[in-house]
Structure formats: C-alpha cells, structure tokens
Write a structure and sequence with these properties.
Blueprint lengths: L3 H17 L3 H9 L3 H4 L11 H14 L1 H9 L1 H34 L3 H22 L2 H11 L1 H9 L5 H28 L5 E6 L4 E6 L13 E7 L3 H18 L2 E7 L4 E7 L4 H15 L5 E5 L4 H8 L2 H17 L6 E9 L2 H8 L5 E2 L9 E9 L3 H17 L3 E8 L1
Antiparallel strand pairs: 1-2, 2-4, 3-5, 3-6, 4-5, 7-9, 7-10, 8-9
C-alpha cells in the first residue's frame, strides 16, 4: 500500500503520463511496419434491417452539426478553446478515476451511494469530453444539464429537510426532467435536413432535387421498395409542407430519395423497407390530408437500384451537381486549394480502355477488373469553382460516352 502522503503526487504523475502517451512514437514506428488491416481496431456491427435509415439519420445529424465543425477550420480561437477544454475534461476524468479507483472497487463488494456517485461522475466527465469532441459545445452543455439530476436528487435526499419537503422537491425535479426529456425527444425528430443536388433534367423537363445525404447509402439490400407520389401542386405550397414531410419520414423510418418539380406537379421518390407496403398507404393518406387532393402512387421494387441509376445517379447533370456540392463543402470550410475530382469507371474490354486513355490519363484498377471488364480511376485537378468543375466533368463524361465507358462513383478531394 502506497503511503498516503505519496498518493496524490503519484496520481498526478500517472494522469500526465496517460495524457502525454510517451509510447505514441513507438506505436507509430511499429504501425509503419505492419499492414493496414493488421492495425485497424476491432470492429463489429449488429445491423438490423433498417440500418440504411439509421446511417442516413447519422448523416443528417452530422450535417446538422456542420456549423460547429466549420468553426474548427475557420476560427482558430474556437478550435483551441474546444481542444483545451476537451484535454482538461479527459485529464480530470483520468485523475479522478485513478484517485478513486480503490473506493470504486469497494463499491462492488459493499454498495455505497457516495462511491457510486463518484463512479457516475467519472463516466459523465468522459461522456462530456466525447460529446465535446464529436458535436461541440451545445450538445455538451445539454448533456451536462441532464447529468446534474441524479446528484441533485441525492443531495436533497441527504439534507435535513422533512420527508414531505424532500418528496415534493424530488418529485418536482423528476417531473421537470421528464417534461424536458419529452421536449428534447420532440426536437430530436424535428431536427431534419434535406440537402439537395439541384439541376434541371432535360428529359424529365423538371427541376430535380436529389438527396445528397442519401447518395452514399443508395446501394443497400433492405430499402428496395420504392414509390413515386405525384402531387399536383405548385412549388410554393410544396415547400411550405416539405418540413412536415421530412419529420414524418424521420419518425417512421423511410427516406425521401429525391423529388422533381415541373409546371404542373411535384413527384416524390421515396425508398421504404422492402416489406413495408402498409407504410406506403399511410404516407399516401398523410400527403392527401396535407395537400387536400387525391395523390396517385406508383410502387415498384428496385433491388439493384436500376431505376434510381436511370432517373438520377448516372445522369451527367446529377454527376456534375454532386461534384459541385462536394467542392462547395470544401469552400465552406475555407479550404482554398485546387480540388481533385476522382471518377471510378469501367469499360467492357481493354481496347475501349486503351482508346480512352489516348484522350486523357486514367489508372487501371486491376484488383477490381473481372470477367473481361476493365475498371479505371480518372483523377482531374482543377480550380474549385463551379464552372471549371462542370467543364472538366462534361468533357470527361463525353469521352466516356464516345468510348462506351460506364460511370460508377465520384469523389472530390483536396
């Protein structure tokens, strides 16, 4: 057993060692000599049938918190304050944990409320550091406010007030916490965003607003039941009701993949869980109550996403809009360097690929070229402005059309 007079200095030294991590350089040296797959942390996923929706909801949350993330790139003082406060919370959590670990261990054998609250405090400190790192100050303060409830109830419980006074105060705290929790849950479902890839489709003769946040999740095995709802209304009326449509979709776990607007109607393209036919009928009734008219619906299964590819994903205007959207995100973060537009494509044979490379450079992806098909990667460096991005992309897409290449995926880097 360490002498009591040495305990505090040892705890402080151990806390500093944990934070500074003197073995970080050794870890980096060892990692550099190993394969990437051998240094990845252990990951496992327990996915239900609705995993595409919950992944999409995370995309919405990330975009909702984008203003906080943008400050990390654009405001140096904000970034420093956030990092310093996070280190303080982590250091405080480690210090308290090491200092109180003996008491926490004793709680396992002989339950004690004081030791339990000490353990609770440690968990909350690390949780606050996690939320500060992940989401910023607003979510951290909200978590901190709710975390005060159990200690507050405990403090009131050990005071010398009479039983009925304690009971009344504690009941009031629990009731207020319950009401605030319901309000927060309500606001959680109201926290929806729709980020459109906007362009004009000549074939449809309509303005298209494809869902940019859903694009990375298009290819999934469960949300294959699709429906097109034809709403005969004007754009202004639709926009007034669109927020409530998004909230409804968020609550009942389906995804608005895109919508189109022409002079006579709005068409909603919606993806549902493969067996959720009843929800289509209920959503149809919801729309009819909103717009006060009958709404035709076309239901079909699109397991391979062929319809989505034909209507949106593989159209030149969609590809250009997607690239411009990703480039705009970089501009929002005040990253002013040139961008790299990277296309993954494939050709039906090597001859088509060779003819294409005579017009512009491409890199063959041998590891994913199978059954005679040739996969390739095309990288284009250009200034980060919409005109130059569209010019370079349309030239490349035209060359792909000439030499019968097929588009697969697009990414933008800096």
């Amino acid at each position: 057993m360490i002498d009591y007079s040495y305990q505090l200095p040892i705890v402080i030294i151990m806390t500093i060692i944990f934070i500074l991590n003197p073995l970080a350089q050794l870890e980096s040296t060892l990692r550099s000599g190993m394969k990437d797959e051998n240094t990845q942390p252990i990951r496992f996923s327990i996915r239900g049938k609705k995993w595409p929706f919950f992944a999409y909801r995370r995309q919405m949350k990330n975009y909702y918190h984008l203003p906080q993330s943008r400050k990390l790139y654009t405001q140096t003082h904000y970034k420093m304050l956030r990092q310093i406060l996070m280190l303080v919370l982590i250091g405080l959590g480690i210090f308290v944990f090491i200092h109180e670990i003996n008491h926490i261990a004793n709680t396992l054998d002989n339950f004690n409320w004081t030791n339990f609250l000490t353990f609770y405090l440690i968990v909350i400190i690390f949780l606050l550091a996690y939320f500060l790192y992940l989401k910023g100050f607003t979510s951290t303060f909200r978590t901190f406010a709710f975390s005060l409830v159990p200690p507050l109830i405990y403090i009131i419980g050990i005071t010398s007030f009479g039983f009925w006074i304690k009971f009344s105060i504690i009941a009031a705290i629990i009731f207020i916490t319950f009401v605030l929790s319901v309000v927060e849950l309500y606001h959680l479902y109201q926290r929806v965003v729709y980020v459109p890839l906007r362009y004009y489709d000549v074939e449809m003769q309509a303005d298209v607003y494809a869902n940019a946040l859903f694009e990375p999740l298009v290819y999934n095995e469960t949300y294959t039941l699709c429906a097109e709802f034809e709403i005969k209304t004007d754009e202004k009326t639709f926009n007034e009701n669109f927020k409530s449509i998004l909230v409804y979709a968020n609550y009942f776990h389906f995804i608005i993949a895109a919508y189109t607007i022409d002079t006579q109607k709005v068409v909603l393209h919606v993806h549902f869980l493969y067996k959720n036919h009843k929800r289509i009928e209920k959503f149809k009734g919801f729309l009819e109550s909103k717009f006060q008219r009958s709404i035709p619906v076309n239901v079909y299964s699109d397991y391979n996403k062929a319809s989505y590819e034909k209507n949106f994903f593989h159209k030149d205007a969609y590809i250009v809009a997607r690239a411009q959207y990703l480039a705009n995100l970089l501009r929002d973060l005040e990253i002013k360097s040139k961008v790299i537009i990277s296309l993954i494509v494939y050709f039906e044979n090597d001859q088509q690929y060779q003819m294409f490379t005579e017009t512009q450079p491409a890199t063959k992806l041998s590891e994913v070229s199978i059954d005679g098909y040739v996969s390739a990667k095309i990288d284009m460096i250009c200034p980060n402005n919409d005109f130059m991005i569209e010019k370079n992309l349309r030239e490349t897409l035209l060359n792909l059309l000439i030499f019968q290449g097929k588009f697969v995926r697009l990414n933008v880097f800096y």
